[in-house]
Queue: 2 jobs
Job 1
Amino acid sequence: MNVYYDNESRPGEGLAFVVAPTADGPPPGSHGGFLGLTNATLEATPATNRFVAVEFDTFKEPGGYDPDDNHVGLDVGTVASNKTASLAGFNITIATNKTAPANYTAWIEYDGAARRIAVYMGVRGAPRPATPVLASPLDLSELVPERAYLGFTASTGVSFELNCILDWNLTIETFPADKKSKGWVVPVAVAVPVAAIAAAAFVVARMARARRSMERRRQERLEHTLTNLPGMPKEFAFEKLRKATKNFDERLRLGKGGYGMVYKGVLPAAAVDDDDGRPPAATEVAVKMFTRDDAKCVDDFLKEVQIIHRLRHRNIVPLVGMSKIFKLHYITFA
């Protein structure tokens, strides 16, 4: 990114990367220190604003919540940052002019499992620094809607500057969610032509809707086929398989192939039905995890369940059940 101001003026006000509840434009009156995020009215009710932003602030607002005119801040529903960090100690000046021009890269990384955000910043072209300029606990699941928009906002006031997003990259990794947590990890290298921000947000939203629709159709086909299998195999809750494999511990991995991985596990007593009248006992199992995320993976999962479900041989481990969660499918053998 590049923030430029004329030598004759004073820079202001700043820009922000935001996770927002809607794709609506900036609220009226959000110029100046509101950074296009809120206004005087919305500032009175931060809990209802439902956004989280990382601000790159170039103007010290009166009121005492800005440490200086060159800082990074974490904004939760308000521009009065929950946490700020001055960049003076990192030899970084956000707003530059022709006397000392500079382009920067910012990495914004969110760990949904640890519920923590970290912001790194350095000269463009250099590797990501080892030390973040700002780090803070943060639980996005409590603060923004499940369906949200990513983008950028900026503002000017009496002071002005040119806020340029040069390019950007977004990576999201999703994991099977248990009952206690829903997590994502979001590393973001900030920057995009400003004129393309709205279009990018629209495209991302459309792609996400299309993907959800496709995944819903796959899930419906999967459930229909499994329901019509003769003697349908037992369906295990994902939590049971996770505990059986000690959270899919790498030390229990038996093998890896093009479609996924196989883990050794132990299901507790009574988790697997015995047909010979013996008392239920803990059962040693192999759990195959399908990790490919495409339609062919679903087809292969169904074919393997159908074939193995019919096989009976002393040298072939029998199928005892399966599980399906989000994009991952599991087959359990005993």
Note: The domain at 2-192 is CATH 2.60.120.200 (Jelly Rolls).
Job 2
Amino acid sequence: MYWAYVKRFFVLVIVDAVACTIGFACGSDTWIWVLACSVACFVLLGIMLGFVYSRLISGDWDNIADESFLQQEDVDITMSDGFRMACKILKAPGHDGQRLPVVICHHGLTGNGRKLLWLAIPLAMKGYLVILPDARAHGRSAKRFKQARMDDWYITGTTGIMPDYKQVLDHACSRPDADASRVVAIGHSLGGATSMVSGLPDQRVSLVISMSAYYSFVDLMEAKRGRVPLTEPWFSKHFLRNVINFGKLRKLDGKISPKCTLDTISRGDVIRKLRVVHARDDKLVLPEASVDKIVAHARLPGTSVFITKKGDHNLRGQETAIVARIEQWLDEAFGSA
């Protein structure tokens, strides 16, 4: 719906530009000043619209979700290069002395752990120990190491947003309140790709649930619909250019793409461990270049795939159905927590 307002704004800009041109051609000083003021107003409205659009793309759960009724713990997990990642741990009261199944909820690009509170809170209430990391250059972790960049997805084999996942797993499995035999990796967007790239090959992870994740970074950037000028996929793609270096990540495609990871894992393990969630109207990670290819490559059965018609990239408005489906997958894998 918000994209309709973006298009109307551009129509108004074009009309105003035409009016300015006519006013200038007619030589009316009064009209020129009036139209100049309207142009200034349109510029301010454009800035406001851009801000609102960026908020819509990134979601706003970090500001409206309330987790105060849960037990909370803030921890710092040391990465292999000494960087200390900020993480939040959530669990329901009344589980002292018990080992709980673990869910790691990894956020997407430009986000932070709180963006997934819509999923973390009901899972914690169901009896899971939920870990919400803030990846390097994101959330609270961004203040720890200011040289880090949001596109540091892979730096070395042991450092970078994706290799860092091993350290998060190490911490999860070493906790006295965690059941290391029941570990679930859930992620959204970049976090979904991270969960597949780093979680699928790890034998400690029993289940990987990937939401709105890309298949290959190259495929994501070269999707046909994303190359059509002045469309929402085109604008979404250029939004990404403001925060990540396409050239840098293109060279790392073999290290950061689930496409390559799926080639290294047996089909049996993939079928047993992988579940995917996506919205058919995702304008950022286009489904024909992402989830459709993941499902085809892995030959996932329909029971392992949950695709909604609406929701866009952040699955907005589909949270209740998605939480219910994820809880079904978890019950099928572990029984009731």
Note: The chain has 14 helices and eight strands.
